Amino acid sequence: MRQDKEYSVEGGLGLTVRRVIAYVVLILLTFLCLFWFYILFINASRTHQQLSAGFTMIPGSALITNFNNVMHGTQPIAKGMLNSFIVAACASVLSVYFSTMTAYAIHVYDFKAKKAIFTFILAVMMIPTQVTALGFVKLVQGIKLEDSFIPLIVPAIAAPATFYYMKQYMESALPHAIVEAARIDGANEFRTFNTISVPMMKPAIAVQMIFTFVFNWNNYFTPALILHDDKKKTLPILIAALRNADWLKFDMGQVYVTIAFSIFPVIIVYLFLSRFIVGGVAVGSVKG
Amino acid sequence: MANEPKKGKSRVVRYNKWGYIFLIPFIAVYLIFQMIPLITTIYNSFFENYLSGIKQIGPNWIGLNNYIEIINNGDLIMYAKNTLIMWILGFVPQIFFSLLLGAWFADTRLRIRAAGFFKTVIYLPNLIMAAAFSMLFFTLFADTGPVNAILQNLGWISEPYQFLSHAGGSRGLVAFMNFLMWFGNTTILLMAGMMGIDNSLFEAAQVDGATSTQVFFRITLPMLRPILLFVMITSLIGGLQMFDVPQVLTAGDGTPARQSMTLIMYLNKHLYSKNYGMAGALSVFLFIITGILSLIVFKFSVQDNVDEVKPRRNRNKG
After folding, report:
1. Chain A residues whose beta carbon lies within 8 Å of the beta carbon of residue B271
2. How far is residue A199 from each of residues A170, A192, A228, B22, B270, measured CA to CA in Å?
3. Contacts of B212 in chain A (CB under 8 A)
4. CA distance A65 to chain B (A)
5. Can you list the alpha helix ranges (DSSP code H) found in A72-201?
6. By the 8 A CB rule, do B187 and B105 touch?
7. Residue B49 pLDDT class (50, 70, 90 cuts)
8. Domain limits of chain A?
């Protein structure tokens, strides 16, 4: 191993110089990523008067007051958080469970339509849901499910991208021999799936649960078309409503706290689980 | 099929019907919530169906008139152009920094310390609620907001710069947010691709005395071409769906003068005003474009996966 030999070839930059440039760029980008959240935190902790007086880099002490004002204010933010949580939690559980089941069907069994179905799912994987939004809204109106969470939760069962990730993961983590061993032990297929295969998929399930939860927590387009009742609205709709209203009349401290409470829960969870999430990004997309 | 139990075919066949059973939830939900809406969307595009004031017009069959109108009134072209401009403005710096960072992270000689920390930070904005991020930028870049205050304190500008009153300002903000939200994701994808390149190529180049720049342009980039294509097309598909950020930033108006109005904002507008005929025609256009782009991704990157399905092998996949 001659790894330590640092050499600079004629015409190229020395390793030390390249390293310095790399760190400078990385630190600048880190600043660019975090700066906004720092200002958000500062501003969420200051009163409306302090905010109008001008900007400082030092946090204020009104965070709790602002938060209480939001919770007891006219905008149903607390209810919105609860709604967002219900939709995101239910959608992610259903999506991940049934995507694993779909991937299991393709991975474990051999049947005639297998290749056709697999091809179809992958071919439609990239097509955005927005292009069928019109038909979706009409369908939801037709079956009288406007202002209900069902049209936001149940469709998550058919999630081609989650399916693809699960399928990729199964290739390396779920040997057919295990399924066959369970069969010899007399377990039926459904039980084999639930008690043997699902537990073996835990790492992939965790990663996809997080991704699906975050996607649904953040989702704005579809919920905004389905939910009209203030009591049913999710957080992104309420945030967009803040923008559409005459926002200058609002207590800016409250506006910042509302934004903070839609962003920071995700950041906190992410900081604990980032290792798995960042590691999981590349797996489901492409193969080398 | 050496791994299958030898005890007669019927047992295997009996198991394999479970493949269909396990597919039922996916297929049923897909048919109801994706397939039927797609068909109704296309169907609606052939009808005149909108509200004029409070008067409902239609639905009347008008054939391709919605398509003709949407092309002729010029809006579609304008919004497609806006969307593309904002996508390109965000994508160019995104791919530049992602290639740079990916190459640095994957470089074994450079040995970046705290790479885990940097990856965590640059991926973070991808998980942020786009609507909230956009609202945050709206308040920060407002005429009386902190960014203008900082710039004025530094003495760089004397009057507040009205970001949303300039096409460059609001398009630039949208592109900048998209860049921040996506460059971490792209970096991780490209880095994974770079790690997958056969190390002996780099070693051979080193022996031949190639500089790091030469290695990057002569080895890394050419070997990365399939992944670059994948990243570019998926990003373009994502760009065509651009909605939350410009919608919230400009309150749905695409200020100034609809210069930052995107295709999906246009679709959203028609859906809200219940102009279902035009919304249908627009959706069909978007469906065709994204469908073609999806097929390219499918052909170049995921099809191998389908082809691997048939012969079942016990592989030790790396």
Report:
1. 133-134, 137, 225
2. 12, 10, 39, 17, 46
3. 12-13, 18
4. 20
5. 77-108, 114-124, 133-142, 150-153, 160-173, 176-184, 189-191, 198-200
6. yes
7. confident
8. 75-244
Neighbouring CB atoms inside 10 A of B73's CB total 11
Task: Count other Cβ atoms within 10 Å, centred on residue B7.
Answer: 8
Q: Tens digit of pLDDT for each residue in A146-191?
A: 999 999 999 999 999 999 999 989 988 899 898 888 888 888 889 9
Best mutation target among B12, B24, B127 (most A Cβ atoms within 10 Å) is: B127
A130 within 8 A of B271, measured Cβ to Cβ: no
| Spatial separation of the C-alpha atoms in residues B178 and B171, rounded to whole Å | 11
Specify the amino acid at residue A54. Answer: G
Q: How far apart are CA A166 and CA A174, in angstroms?
A: 10
Calculate the CA B12 to chain-centre distance.
42
Mean pLDDT of chain A: 87
List of residues 6+ apart from B250 with CB closer than 8 A: B164, B170, B260, B261
Structure tokens at B161: 């710069």
Which pair of structure tokens corresponds to residue B11? 């047992």
User: Taking CB atoms and an 8 Å cut-off, how many pairs form between chains A and B?
Assistant: 339
d(CA B175, CA B138): 14
DSSP H or E run through B51: strand B47-52
**CB contact set of B209 (below 8 Å; sequence gap of 6+):** A9
Euclidean distance between CA atoms A193 and A208, whole angstroms: 18
Contact A133 B314 (CB under 8 A): no
Taken in order of first residue, the domains within chain B and their CATH numbers are 78-307 (1.10.3720.10)
Instruction: Test A122 with B189 for CB contact under 8 angstroms.
Output: no
Per CATH, the architecture of A75-244 is what?
Orthogonal Bundle (1.10)
pLDDT at position B313, please? 38
**Could you give the 3-state DSSP secondary structure of residue A107?**
helix
Which residues of chain B neighbour A153 with C-beta distances below 8 Å?
A: none
The values of phi and psi at residue A175, to 5°, are -70, 145
- Give residue B318's pLDDT: 33
Classify B53 as helix, strand or coil: coil
How far apart, in whole angstroms, are the C-alpha atoms of residue A257 and residue A226? Answer: 26
Distance from CA of A75 to the nearest CA of B (A): 15
Spatial distance between the Cα atoms of B90 and A91, rounded to a whole number of angstroms: 31
Encoded amino acid at A67, one letter: F
Q: Is the peptide bond before A236 cis (omega within 30 degrees of 0)?
A: no
Task: State the ipTM, two decimals.
Answer: 0.89
Q: Which of A5-9, A212-216, B128-132, B289-293 has the lowest mean pLDDT?
A: A5-9
Runs of H (alpha helix) within chain B: 9-30, 36-44, 65-72, 75-106, 115-123, 130-140, 146-153, 167-195, 199-207, 212-215, 221-223, 225-240, 244-249, 263-272, 276-297, 303-307
Overall residue count recorded for chain A in this entry:
288
Instruction: State both tokens at B150.
Output: 């900082």
